[in-house]
Structures
1.
Amino acid sequence: KLGKITDADYISSLYDAEIRRVDDGVAEIIEAVDALGLAEDTLIVLTGDHGESLTSHDIYFDHHGLYDDVIHVPLIMRMKGKIPAGVRVKPMVQHLDIAPTMLEASGAKLPPHLEGQSLWPLATGVTAEGGYDKIICCENTWQSKWSLRTETMKLILSRQPDYHGMPRRELYNLVDDPEELINIAESHSEIADAMEAELEAWITERLAKLDRTEDPLKTQAITLGRRWPEYLKRANLPDPRKY
């Protein structure tokens, strides 16, 4: 007889076990580097391509959506004698900063066309300044959305209704509501309006640089979730999309 797993904590514990296995593997790499006497000549960078939503925001054990549990990922760097141990860097940074950081750490010249900024001065404690005051992300897999995140606020702007029934605009105060559970877009519409205008201006500017005029999130269908309407119809379930 086929049973069903209904305990979400059980699935989450399996995810914890995966993380522990990765931790053990990273420890093996670090121990090998140290044993070979290469610790002072080797920059180790640990990061992730995305986080995971275990149960939040109606997203179960998947990594779509532009909430912090998906887009806020680890970035840990280690180079003995160069990077102080146990230091946490406050500014927001991005994946595209990793390449210039590794180049500067190795003493190589940074190509002028390379996007991103080197985090080497931040990592080595030369400065506490750097990073970005805003981060822009987008998704067109299960949802079709843009987001603008600052240190304190996040706006999520939807290009088409999603299958979680969320409104077109979401605004979260990341200081008071770090889990992004309380949408304040309506009660703080002036902030949402300003952030939306800033985000739309950035999108327009980037499209112009690429000699394009139409936002692809508006003109292209979602990819991984394209079969959801068929599934809902086959399962005789209501369509949660609105607005």
2.
Amino acid sequence: MRIGGVSLAASPEVVARLRAAGCVFADEEAALLGEAATSPAQLEAMVARRVDGLPLEHVLGWAEFCGLRPAVEPGVFVPRRRTEALVEEAARLALRRPVGARGAVVVDLCCGSGALGVALVTTLRAAGRPEGALHAGDVDPVAVRCARRNVEPLGGQVHSGDLFTSLPPSLAGRIDVLLANVPYVPTEAIALLPPEARRHEPRTALDGGADGLDLLRRVASGAPAWLAPGGHLLVECGQGQVPAAVQALTAAGLQARVLNTQSPVLVGTRAGGTPSLPSPGGRPSLPSLP
């Protein structure tokens, strides 16, 4: 932003304040804040919020993800750039489907802002695959509200509820790509996260239980009943969690493989065959919470 021919965002004072607050990329952040601000007063308010520790994405109202800028509201998990590898693999798998086959059914579970599902569907449409359906679900009402801002303009639907209970029963046995960016930080390690994550992102989006894999196990266990034959579940985990995560996928009857061992992405594929029958009430049964 330029006021009277001077860029306030690039001023040494703004950059110095951001750097003193621990912002490693202070120059870049100052430029982004300046672009977003419409007045000196708004710029000052945005800088103050960032200096106070609010994540840059919450200050701006969006996150950079897969070349898009999905809306991210305060109190919603910020999509990480490392998760772009998960979306890229999901797109590769979806694009392997024969041209002319029914459109891919994509579900973004534990969706937060819905950024993963939006990025995947946008990629598929750019590749000439506009058919299909996008669904997203989250247990946090703030995330559901935010995800609707991103998902509904693409014609997708966002559902509220705990994991698979959020989804319409009609999706059972029909999901081709299931993205599940579940939390995988062990409970005792939450205190080691950066302050902006601990203070401003929901605990439910960070805490994966004693070993960090509670939610991953629940998703893996429920996934076969919801995946179409040959459908894929994609999740992330930490480097030291790979063996246990693979075991969770294989124990659920999925064919597991690991990509990128530095920032692991796991793919669990359901073999061809008859989908598991839903439990009475129209939904596959889920394991009990630990």
3.
Amino acid sequence: MPVAKAFDSPTNNSLLAVLPRREFENIVPELEHQQVESGKTLCESGEKADYIYFPTSCLISLNYESDNGTSISIATIGRNGIVGTGVAMGNVRSPDRAIVQYNGCVYRMKAASVENELAECGDFQALLMTYTQALMTKISQNAICNRLHRIDQQVCRVLLEFSDELRTDVLKMTHDLIAGILGVRRESVSLAAGNLQKRQLITATRGEIRITNQEGLLSAACECYSVAKDHLKQCLEKYSAEHTS
């Protein structure tokens, strides 16, 4: 197994961090540390997953791609998530494409190893099911947000989510990237970002956005970011209470 850098650890992923110690120690030998670059495809749509991924410092986008080639992000997953939970449900072919959106690190685990652990340990299975429920809520909330809320509110949601997942207020991202996530025109994102900058909530330079007022940005956002975040927190608290170390 490749040796992880000192600053990176499986427990930097929030889901692995709540596993009971005995189960965590069981799966650590099965975890492979990887650095992944933006644009790398981890799983194509219509294929079975070879691995599940636990991001620690990267962001992975689940993209739905239509027959006419249109692609839209339905969820972005970072340190607070898992990519490939379908392995726990018989590893059916996924309709989504998992692609790295932001450089960083992941720990990956072979699908065959996951299936073995699922057969032997209820704690691990329960963790995957717990997160799957939270992910469904996040995807639903994103769909509601993209349909009902203003572009500036959607931009706030994306910035807050990225900041939380990456644990930084300085984001290396472009207006094109945000537009691709939201499925809107770049000009709409630029206008929204300009308004947020005038309100002194962010500062934007070429290829970088800095959040200068986190609380203000949260107030400017719709409820969607908080709903998804709070639901995941509740799910993990319930899991921890029922699966002691």
4.
Amino acid sequence: MKPQLTVVTLAVEDLDRSLKFYRDGLRFTTQGIVGTEFEHGAVVFFELEGSLRLALWPAASLSAEGGINATRQRLGAVSLGHNVASRAEVDTVMAQVAEAGAVITAAPCERFFGGYSGYFHDPDGHLWEVVWNPKWNGEL
């Protein structure tokens, strides 16, 4: 078996709000909300690099599908990394997400590994890092 991650699904409280945040704040491309004709089907997909997709799904729907109790605690268990091409792009993206309503948890700064990054919480408390890593030389 070849390890492959194809979809990262984030539980959200308000699908419309989260769609606007990711589309307008992070400038991720999407066709919008799909699947509304199905019970617990409304979802938003963003196509990322490679074959990876980011899905936003209402917490109640993910809870019903996955057979779990939804929780509002999402802070710090996982960090999602959005790698960009330069220090300046880190600053630009951080400004965009702040304008879109993100809570900046760590302002962009130089990091121990030689890169530059900042952190924010999206409207549902998911932790994101916007990072430039000079050692990856555009291999993103």
